[in-house]
Amino acid sequence: DIQLTQSPSSLSVSVGDRVTITCQASQDISNYLNWYQQKPGKAPILLISGASNLETGVPSRFSGSGSGTDLTFTISSLQPEDIATYYCQQYDSLPLTFGQGTRLDIK
Amino acid sequence: QLQLQESGPGLVKPSETLSLTCTVSGGSISGTTTYYWGWIRQPPGKGLEWIGYVYDSGTTYYNPSLKSRVTMSVDTSKNRFSLKLTSVTAADTAVYYCARHSPSFYASSGYYGDIDRWGQGTLVTVSS
What is the mean pLDDT of chain B? Predict the structure, then answer.
């Protein structure tokens, strides 16, 4: 199985902050990586597919980059509604696997 | 708008079988576009674990960590798919999500990796 390690595991942030989350894969996954947002009590929502492509309706302050073993997720200017837990997920091979999540909370 | 809804017992006794059904509305489970239909679980306060998925033909892929205990099936006549997990223990206590899996439009690996529609999730507790 491909292991995904996200860092940091949690982050205290302020509105307007630039937020960067990294996802390190245990082997080369090219750009076969997605990012999800999950709010408490809710199902995750797919934000970014193929490492860098925003799903329809996702605000442009979200972005993703990278390929290989080190991929990055960025929120350019954090908004209050962005407080959530974010997960990376690889689809280079089965089983699909997720990172452990990065929880954002307000500083 | 496609919607998925999980149903099934919220409490299962240890060693018994967990059975859940996901009913799909607003679209056909076996339409012209190809999707896989799968399950993901999340223990309370923890991360996401992919259980597996099933195609409308009945083809399945299971997470090896659960493969010996998992069965998934599709009922196209009722537009729903199901999960069975045998010999459950407290470690199987989790929110179980059903979800649609799509091939990535942007970067195709050959696997259906975009989990783009989710049910609301149902908490299943394993306890006597």
Answer: 95
